[in-house]
Amino acid sequence: MVAVINFGGQYAHLIARRIRELGVKSELISPDSNISTVKKLAPQALILSGSPFSCYEKNAPKVDLKIYELGLPILGICYGQQLMAVQLGGQVSSHSSKQFGRELLKITTSALFENLKSSQTVWFSHGDQVDRLPTGFKIIASSKNAKIAGMEDSQRRFYGIQFHPEVTHTPNGEVILSNFLFKIAKAKKDWNLKSLKEDIVNNLIKKIKNQKVVMALSGGVDSLVAATLLKEAIGDNLFLVFIDTGLLRKYDLEDLENVVKSVNFKNLPAGRQGFRIVNSQSRFLKILQRVNDPEEKRKVIAKLYFAILEEEAKKIGNVTFLAQGTIYPDRIESAKPSKHADKIKSHHNVTLPKGLKLKIIEPLGEFYKDEVRKLGKILRIPQEFLNRHPFPGPGLAIRILGEVTEDRLKILREADAIFIEELKKAGIYNKVGQALAALLPVKSVGVMGDARTYSYIIALRSVDTVDFMTADWSKIPSDVMEKVSSRIVNEVRGVNRVVYDITQKPPATIEYE
Ligand code: XMP
């Protein structure tokens, strides 16, 4: 594997994804990881990521200097290059204006740039830059604004680049990463989803043996793919439940019933369509009364959710494990706040209650969303279901700002169904990353017929994203938006205004709470 030391740069995740796309396992690790943790991972190479920090800042993240003595090839990207330069005796200077965007790069002969022409378009995003090389290094790339845009010490196999090879705006970025992996680090390919699927199933068999597993399907892709892997591994010892929280969308249950029929899950307690539905709407509504704070909402929902799962496990009897559809980004976004990153929100399936007796199994804990979809394809789950947009565990509760009530849920469900239906009709649904409607609990004045109205506002949000960590708002044609808006105000009682959210993530998140 290749360890990407994550200094908190916005593209750090992309680096790991690109490495995996090239067939090598990659994971993000914290700069605070001690040297024995790094050794234990037995990486084939190290990559130092970008960072929002400047490397001379007081709290700037650093790596243990012993990292440079492991004999491993290292590629520093942006801040990673600057830190490497400073830690090895060079110098970095701060520039007040940021260099941001595409630029022309002149390169010299280097193993890192094999098969590339001497002039390259690359993407920069930085304020600081290296202005004195450490001993043993030479310049391998320059741009108009950065004399040392690339540096190497080929003896020690240390490379640094000021630009970002991981973003698509650097057209030959993949060649550069591939050169680093295969020409410089001589990395072996070890990341192939087909063989990984076999590994996951075999590991599940070994770990679970003939014990029982309970798992809640959420209606989303992740839990379904995880359940399908488990079904292949342990067959009848998998017990699936579906907790109807009442916070679902209009079509969630029906969609799930359809797909579960085609995946053919069976042998479930009191099983209807291969899974047990636990009707819990009133319990959830009750605990959400007068809860306005987003984190509080997430907490009370998660608590009840896991309590219900434990009740179900008791009914089944002798259940050892609770399986979860957690994927890699869920773990990262809910990470405990650290020096270099804040906790953004408590993802539902990662925030486990204290004292939970069941042991947790997360078959997809290592994978990104697009990899999960590819695994789903290998498992022959119908494509239509794999293309479904993500839907968060706390459901519509985090799309109703403020208190969740039955009335508000009903309004939001109708508005959301219209939005999604029109996106599908227009052939847009599969082109965007995630689309949703949210209810803003403020009322505005309108006029309908000849009468004054005073009703809620529905916010529509649709984002284009690959990894859900960063996202851009979707440029949906105005005629489609017009149809959606007019249908919502005409068909949904209690709404007289529709707005479209045009904020990127960051600074806004995809969900509203
Ligand atoms: P945000 O709102 O943080 O969301 O930009 C990023 C992605 O995560 C989904 N999300 C969740 N998924 N449980 C989940 O399973 C949760 O509690 C949760 N909160 C957000 C969100 O829908 C988006 O795809």
UniProtKB/TrEMBL annotation:
GO molecular function terms attached to this record: ATP binding; GMP synthase activity
Domain GMPS ATP-PPase: start-end pairs: 191-388
Enzyme Commission number(s): 6.3.5.2
One Pfam family per UniProt: GMP_synt_C
Alphabetical list of InterPro entries matching this protein: Class_I_gatase-like, GATASE, GMP_synth_C, GMP_synth_GATase, GMP_synthase, GMPS_ATP_PPase_dom, NAD/GMP_synthase, Rossmann-like_a/b/a_fold
Pathway: Purine metabolism; GMP biosynthesis; GMP from XMP (L-Gln route): step 1/1
Record carries keyword ATP-binding: yes
One Gene Ontology CC term in the entry: cytosol
Catalytic activity of the protein: XMP + L-glutamine + ATP + H2O = GMP + L-glutamate + AMP + diphosphate + 2 H(+)
Coiled coil: none
Top-level taxon in the UniProt lineage: Bacteria
Top-level enzyme category: ligase
Role of this protein: Catalyzes the synthesis of GMP from XMP.
Protein name, entry field: GMP synthase [glutamine-hydrolyzing]
UniProt organism field: Candidatus Curtissbacteria bacterium GW2011_GWC2_38_9
